[in-house]
């Protein structure tokens, strides 16, 4: 198939920052793109060939959009899977496949999948509701502390809570959930896997994540992770296995815990470009976004090695500010060598909203880490 | 001034591949852009915020476009300078300035500028017409061989010809021209200079250019040039001097000859992002396009050092093919590590038309050079 400067059309469900960064690659290759998003202010309204406004969870909207394109992908998991199944049945190529997406969308299914395939993961129990969970706690089947996770629609720390007493369960949504054993861990790691339609499969180096203690959002993503080669190899091997077992096509971000005993446990996966791979735009030979495009179009995958050390700092809205956004001190960070801000294009800020990210690259990791801290302490996302 | 996710508007005259690569940076920073180009199929029709179709050489069209924006730049020199002067007089910031552009647009003025400022350049004479040139040859004032250059509107080898006998002058345009002494040289080099509104000034490493013997278009751009540090330092110092003397703001690509005696002579300059800097997207800490944006908005300039060796191969239309474009064997080059094609988005190919470029990056220059040759011998721009 001829994708370049041709009539071929790639559809993307979701028009947020991940879609925007994908468009940067489709533009480079001059691949035609159609994007569907509910907001007419979505970051993807420009740079795609056609933008459609509509509900990603509505069968008819997704189905009709999908019928216009040759290959369909998504940058957000919360899409109508039944429409994807129907489109696939009618010959539209959908990657990642709706079958894979279904396994991943529900964290209960996801955990069962790991158990079934002997992929190491924290022990867990599934519950259809909070009362069922409470009953099990009372019967001694779940012990404090544990991690409550909503089975569906959790992201960026939403839908996850550490539960230490019964009162911690108050106010949680009355939905399907899991209770996971709390594992003491040294590091949160992630490995992005790219797997093409024909099964070519590459892993990116292991990254290490540091979370903001309050917002539960990633604060630094550090590539390569400062871990032993042995642990890194184990993490990459497990991520590879997870991608293969899911028969996944495209990018799969595999988030993992490194336990105190250097065991690797899979936490969860995201079947798309991921925050933990943003560093790759500046640091890697091939960015995660380019490799997603290559994978779903069954083109050869690009080199996932890094040219230099990379650290990513999320730019989230500062507490106490809501309204038209201003990036305070952005000039100051632009003055530091190897610092690249990415502004997603959301016009309104609010506390902890992901507004952009900054990549710091350097030949030397220690230097990069120092600069990352300076960046974090300098730039502030406020309102005008 | 607040440029990011704000009402600020950057105008770009010209909507070709250089504009397209600039838009990649404005998108990253979420800076609003308006683009003017005569073709409604220009590569920039998407990814800018507003596209206007119109004649870049028409006073009224350029003036009215310029009135809509806060800062105006261009990606092509052939624009109406009088309109730029009028806009500047009325408070629109125009970078590079119309004054600088005027000095550069006419190669006769450009050469006189070098002489006036003691910038080394090949000896030359200016002529208002071909008959005047012929009369001077007959009078012994110009001797064969020499290089004829059209004073205006030459690019990519058009408007330049080596003249060895009187018959070589046949068919040349009846326009102002210069006759330049033919200098035996070892290398054609280029240095890109970025200079901001406040005068911060950085040079990129020296690149080495290899030309296609027939088409007179650059075939490989190699960064860093394989020359001695001494020559490289001299070339960068001269380029710096040229930019300062022009009081240039934005990017200035300074093309130079390295003579057999390791002298550096300035050939010509381009006041914009340049083909010789495309390698910077993948190889440099800050691409030439990002630094152009930083310079004209008076933001701090980014690091111009390279992360890895970079080589750029132009993708030009193959001889014997005209029509809807096809990039033959593009999959094969995508399979080589460190190879990134850029497809400009022109739908029609014709012999020697610039359709895209390929960047090869590698830790090792010799390896990069080998891969570049493989790339050049593999991919072919043909028609369907």
Automatic annotation (TrEMBL), chains A, B:
GO cellular component, one term: cytosol
Keywords: ATP-binding, Decarboxylase, Ligase, Lyase, Nucleotide-binding, Purine biosynthesis
Enzyme class: ligase
BP terms from Gene Ontology: 'de novo' IMP biosynthetic process
EC identifiers of the protein: 6.3.4.18
InterPro entries the UniProt entry points to: ATP-grasp, ATP-grasp_carboxylate-amine, ATP_grasp_subdomain_1, PreATP-grasp_dom_sf, PurK, PurK_C, PurT/PurK_preATP-grasp, Rudment_hybrid_motif
Binding annotation for ATP: 107, 149, 180-183, 188, 267-268
Domain ATP-grasp span(s) in chain numbering: 111-297
Pathway membership: Purine metabolism; IMP biosynthesis via de novo pathway; 5-amino-1-(5-phospho-D-ribosyl)imidazole-4-carboxylate from 5-amino-1-(5-phospho-D-ribosyl)imidazole (N5-CAIR route): step 1/2
GO molecular function, one term: 5-(carboxyamino)imidazole ribonucleotide synthase activity
Reaction catalysed by this enzyme: 5-amino-1-(5-phospho-beta-D-ribosyl)imidazole + hydrogencarbonate + ATP = 5-carboxyamino-1-(5-phospho-D-ribosyl)imidazole + ADP + phosphate + 2 H(+)
Sequence similarity: Belongs to the PurK/PurT family.
Assembly notes: Homodimer.
Function in brief: Catalyzes the ATP-dependent conversion of 5-aminoimidazole ribonucleotide (AIR) and HCO(3)- to N5-carboxyaminoimidazole ribonucleotide (N5-CAIR). Catalyzes the ATP-dependent conversion of 5-aminoimidazole ribonucleotide (AIR) and HCO(3)(-) to N5-carboxyaminoimidazole ribonucleotide (N5-CAIR).
This protein's name: N5-carboxyaminoimidazole ribonucleotide synthase
Organism this protein belongs to: Flavobacterium agri
Lineage of origin: Bacteria, Pseudomonadati, Bacteroidota, Flavobacteriia, Flavobacteriales
